[in-house]
Amino acid sequence: xxxxxxxxxxxxxxxxxxxxxxxxxxxxxxxxxxxxxxxxxxxxxxxxxxxxxxxxxxxxxxxxxxxxxxxxxxxxxxxxxxxxxxxxxxxxxxxxxxxxxxxxxxxxxxxxxxxxxxxxxxxxxxxxxxxxxxxxxxxxxxxxxxxxxxxxxxxxxxxxxxxxxxxxxxxxxxxxxxxxxxxxxxxxxxxxxxxxxxxxxxxxxxxxxxxxxxxxxxxxxxxxxxxxxxxxxxxxxxxxxxxxxxxxxxxxxxxxxxxxxxxxxxxxxxxxxxxxxxxxxxxxxxxxxxxxxxxxxxxxxxxxxxxxxxxxxxxxxxxxxxxxxxxxxxxxxxxxxxxxxxxxxxxxxxxxxxxxxxxxxxxxxxxxxxxxxxxxxxxxxxxxxxxxxxxxxxxxxxxxxxxxxxxxxxxxxxxxxxxxxxxxxxxxxxxxxxxxxxxxxxxxxxxxxxxxxxxxxxxxxxxxxxxxxxxxxxxxxxxxxxxxxxxxxxxxxxxxxxxxxxxxxxxxxxxxxxxxxxxxxxxxxxxxxxxxxxxxxx
Length: 538
Ligand code: GLC
Known about the structure:
The chain is α/β, with parallel strands linked by helices. 25% of the residues lie in helices and 13% in strands. It has three domains: 11-114 and 189-460, TIM Barrel, CATH 3.20.20.80; 120-174, Oligo-1,6-glucosidase, Domain 2 (Oligo-1,6-glucosidase, domain 2); 477-537, Golgi alpha-mannosidase II (Immunoglobulin-like). Helix 7 (269-273) links the parallel strand 10 (259-262) and strand 11 (283-284). Helix 5 (189-203) packs parallel to helix 6 (241-256). The longest helix has 17 residues, at 353-369.
């Protein structure tokens, strides 16, 4: 159970990750320190006091390495170099140390499934030609058809279309994501060795954890067979070979007391939980919860499934409402189809942002009261909505690979508003940011919200403060209280109660001795209005 402590970020706390509040920084859009329109490490360093005041335990950086940014940095050209647009390695080291001095740990993103087509290995493989050992680090194949003009198999890229690209020499290479992201061959010992070295490289620099990108996709059936529905094992998802890889990673992390969080999207609970066995990953993102519509019955089931599936392996659950890949929470919850909105986004979907904001406030209190760790995505604490980016400014490859039908993920990556009356809402200087901000952006600025008792920022600050100073939050048991089916109410230890009303009618509060926090005002009868949450002490 989480204990209150006068020094809330006790460095010796080895179990910090079991109940941490972790803030995701999409570097390019967080804060621009050098005034070129792109966020950078200088911007993050300058904003560390903001993160301290917000009250987070750790920051997770999306990839900050050298990259042509064909997929926002998830196309890594060199793991040991910081992209010059963001800063230098020395600056990253400084940032890790400065954050740690302020009690904030650093988690970095490692992208083992693929590299950039500008990575030295891939350039060497192209130069060395068919049949070369350099090509064995990737998946090169000849095509099918009389002239090899048909891709080697029928797989579909995660971004749409075939995941194969043909070279002038006639061979094809595999890329489960964009063309610029060739997949590595994880059956090759050099690939394993390199990643183990990369982990050590960053752990040596004080990194406390690693987020593993596309963690369930690395291993491929060496025959690269066609995909047949129901084929077991799947030719590239969740293959058994992965567990051996992660066991060796875990041994390295244990030398440094570092932790992993896996991006493991698997609908099969039993398969998912295998990644969290005690000698594998410490945690994985909970996409069941993220994908759940704003519906009491469905949320209750998602929470129950999460808690039940984690229990046998002793791993803490994680709770996440949004990230750099999905529609922002206030927009998602303000739409008719309130569910997960990742692959099936559409332009111009009607949205009730006021309703979405009310629900997002309640969802914040819900997720912060559940047992385990919680992830926040930059701008969530400001209540930012999804932005519809003008067509000629879209950069996300997902948009282009969908044939232009999917707006892609840029709408949740718009540079943050810091100062209401500064150019570009204080993102950096008077240079226009890399993605355009909408007119309304300055009304969400952190400085405006800072002084406003009713703002989203104030709600998050207060909730995170209570989560740290009050007992009952974080890791530990929870039990449901009996309520109307449209109301979610559960208790934690020491009489802590969280109640969320997802019904139409106001709900009576369960028995309590005090109200710690509400996401919106109670009605004159002291009842909890619809789409509102409260933390109580009983
Ligand atoms: C993950 C990342 C996403 C990226 C993809 C390919 O899903 O979160 O942003 O595009 O992997 O690396």
